[in-house]
Amino acid sequence: MRPPLDMLDVRLGETLAVSFFLQLHHTPDESVDVNNSKDGLLRMVRSLSPKVITLVEQESDTNITHFLPKFIEILEYYLAIFESIYETLLRDRNERINVEKHYLARDIVNVIACE
Q1: What torsion do the CA atoms of 69, 71, 74, 79 make, to the nearest 10 degrees?
Q2: Are 13 and 51 in contact (CB under 8 A)?
Q3: Which of 10, 11, 52, 87 has its CA 20 to 30 A from that of 71?
Q4: CB contact at 8 A, 44 and 2
Q5: If you write DSSP's letter for every residue of the chain in order, what string do you get?
Q6: For the whole model, what pTM was predicted?
Q7: Phi, psi torsion values for 113, nearest 5 degrees
Q8: Each residue's pLDDT tens digit, 55-73
Q9: Which of 39, 42, 49 is nearest to 5 (CA)?
């Protein structure tokens, strides 16, 4: 499935760049769905022949279907993040509180309860 280049507003001779910033870990692969949305997305992007692709992802697999292995994967991932925060920011610093409360807590609830 290749989208028309005009739909993406790509002009002839123009360089195409694709950015996957924290997106692919939300896209199901063959372990979740036989349709393998992740593979389809990557094939579509490849068919566009971009000159540059950037990929930034977290180091955890949240597409695991069974709860216990998923929970353990998430626990290990966030444990490493909290340990690094513990080592670099004092407990009462507003930056630390904001990261833990507004970003990490919301992300953990979303991954465990909503995905």
Answers
A1: -110
A2: no
A3: 87
A4: yes
A5: ----GGGGTPPTT---EEEEES-GGGS--TTT-TT-HHHHHHHHHHHT--SEEEEE--SS-TT-SSHHHHHHHHHHHHHHHHHHHHHHS-TT-HHHHHIIIIIIHHHHHIIIII-
A6: 0.49
A7: -95, -25
A8: 877 777 666 677 888 888 8
A9: 49
pLDDT tens-place string over residues 78-114: 888 888 888 888 888 888 888 888 878 888 887 777 6
Place of tokens 């000159």: 51
Instruction: Give dist(CA 12, CA 39) in Å, integer.
Output: 26
- The candidate with the shortest Cα–Cα distance to 96, out of 87, 111, 112, is 87
**Rounded to an integer, what distance in angstroms lies between the CA atom of residue 2 and that of residue 49?**
11
